[in-house]
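Lab notebook, bench 4. The sequencing result for the construct came back, and we need a structural model before the next group meeting so we can plan mutations. Quick request posted to the team channel:

Model the 3D structure of this chain.
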Amino acid sequence: MAIQSDSILIKRSLLFSRYAGIAVTILGIAVLVGWMFDIALLKSVFPHAISMKANTASSLMFAGTALWLLQIGQSAKKRQLGQVCAWVVFFIGLLTFCEIMFDWDFGIDTLLFQDPVGALATGTPGRMSLRTSLSAMACSIALLTIDKELQNGLRPAQLLALAAALICIPTLIGYGYEVNSIFGERTAMALNTGVGYLVLSAGILLSRPERGFLAVITSKSKGGWIARWILVMCIGVPVCAGWLWTIGENARYFDAAFGKTFYITVCAFVFMLLIWWMARNLHQSEERTQAILENVLDGIITISEKGVIETFNNSAERIFGYTTVEVVGRKIEMLLSDAYKKEQNNFLSSFKKTTVKKVIGIAREVEGRRKDGSTFPMDIAISEMWLGTQRVFIGSVHDISERKQAQEAKTKLAAIIESSDDAIISKTLEGIITSWNPSAEKLFGYKATEIIGSSIMRLIPPDRTDEELQILERLQRGERVDHIETIRVTKDEQYIHVSATVSPIKDATGKIIGASKIVRDISERLKNQSLEAANKELTISQSELRSLFESLPGLFLVLNPDLTIVTASEAYLNATMTKREEIVGRGIFEVFPDNPEDITASGVSNLRTSLDRVRQNGVADTMSIQRYDVRRPDGVFEERYWSPINSPMFGSDRQIKYIIHRVEDVTDFVRQRQDNAGSEENLRARLGQMEAEVFQSSQKVQAVNMQLKAANQELEAFSYSVSHDLRAPLRGVVSFSRIVLEDYGAKLDDEGRRLLNVVCSEAKRMGQLIDDLLAFSRLGRREMKAADFNMSTLAKNVFASLDEITRDRVKHFKVKKLPSAHGDYAMIQQVLFNLIANAAKFSSQEPEPSIEIGAKSKDGFNIYYVKDNGVGFDPRYASKLFGVFQRLHSEEEFEGTGVGLALVQRIIHRHGGKVWAEGQPNAGATFYFSLPIQ
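Done. Here's the predicted structure in token form:
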């Protein structure tokens, strides 16, 4: 059992030891100086007193230096030098001892200085006394073994230092009592020699105050306190009583017999009081210790070296079910399960043989056995304690059954939390996060080390702080918050939809100390719900649009690129005497073949040629009036004349998705021309009839225009809504792709990381397409604010607003004198920006990119142009330039979305102007737009 030392006393002891070494060294040097200059006061302290010999002074100087060099904390070199000094002292003492005991003469007595013949109390000139040589040898060996420790804990250095002190004390007492017979008969020990070696002995003893038998004296225990008092009393009382005896007897106050009686009586009385006081303190200490042992919750068992139980406290009785009488005197193995009996014996046997502490002082978990035979887990810590020469082991036993069960439950709970797909977060009632599982890290992006200790408000959007405060208030009232759907913020400031359940956490007393929150990401669910709603709305809108289309008064037929019929308007079905369910899904030429009785019929071939041009060129194709007979329900073909227009309709992939076949039935018109009615009256009647027909046609056109306007508005609203709804899933794609790259990038190969980067870039590109689509959609609804402005200044300002890299790339930028314009300033600024940016982009691969802006006036219009020397384009595809998402170059060649020129066309058309382009491959391009002159 470790003894707790008094730290203040230890510090003072070490300080005394250090100063003792210095003092003894100075004493030795001072005496040598006295011998060098024959100063009697330095050699003998008092006039006509015994002088310290020169070799004694040398030994004290070396011994004091050795003590200082061997202090705790000194370097290895200093300690080696200290041992050399100790060896010097040892040989001085040993040689002198041999000279005295064997009457030898090594010549060391007068090696340094000559001692006069007849010096006081000196048998041989210059030779130290026998006591001095013994003290020198004892102190030197103590210095050489200062850190050695025996198996029982004793230290030879302390015993030797104590022996040296006991040699010196009688000499000092003799000087104090003035009893010359104590000094010796031949060569006596000088007073300063006795003091020097006594101080040196004390310094050696106190150099390691926490080790050996001094550990008890310097301890904070009751035994240490008593030991210090006994030490003082054992030295002080006999010395003082003896001094009084000597003084009284020398002064003839009483005779020797009375003095002896007085000395014995005083010593006996004082020591009786001391014994009583010690016994009382030890009794009280033992009672307190026994009370503690009997009331401590852990079982305390003392065991002999042979493993026999000696004491067994109340808690041990409660834990094991045995009474003290049943176990004292029996082996400790009876309290251990079979699996641990042999192990325990091996540990104790090995420790007694090798002192290797595999068990001693180390708490470990073992399996105990109760009286009823049941086993249980327990912690046992065995400590070693010496009672004199007898070694005793003290075992501290703690039943950990409940703790093990709690640990198992905690481990299972921790495993559930760690493996849960839901984010599980614990927090205090003040909202400070205390735990954070891996799913929380995955959901919010924060690592546990980043977020634990922070406020839960880091996850709360600014507009929802009141919501969290209300949750905390409900928790403080002990309420549970179930399945609230809300919004939270991730580390990268993304807003996510979550479902949260919050429960209070209580301590063992039932007091609410915090909250546990289970959070589930419902963004995917809401996204799916939104997509389902959007799909449903889209289906409804498509159905409404189809119904609207089919009810239009015009003659429309919708074809797939493979020329199968998709749908037709009611007017078309009536004109062709067909039914929708009979023609949808069939080929147009299967439903509408040539009249087999007309060998000159060319309707099928002409229509096929026109449709092929549409499919090949992607532009509308207007046909001349065609004779195309229609088969009646009875199978007979009826002569008909038509005016057809075939127009492509593009999908999101810029490919033709449908072909709109629109016709006008001009059969009556053709027949009337063929009738050639010649009379004036017939002509007037015909003119009147034509006016009426024109009026009716205009009415129909107006109604159709109104229906088309409504359809366009509905389509714009639908496009705007879909564009907005697409933003949320795109943000999710980008965010989750970035999370995968950051958290799992190291686990992916190069191809996996490349594909994820492609996903991110394509999602961002899709976002840009949506932005451009919204801008295009907004443009149709924006109110125009017309004003006059300087086009030359506007063109220069637009070029200056381009990014620095683009501006630097254009080597030549020229703006000719431009006429002022009248229109919406912001819109025309957008037109110039798009055209100039396009010119800079498509001329960037030229060695000397150049842009020229000019204008001319013609037919009431100002015609402006933007010219570049870039890659140009094939004039055959000029009509595709201004379509939405139409591109003549791949994105790998030139980036862009294909909306910029569509915006230009829409703005110019709203101003009543036109836009067109001219160019040749690799010969540059010129874009024109016209604005009316006001």
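The CA atoms of residues 734 and 764 lie 7 Å apart.
Will bring this to the meeting.
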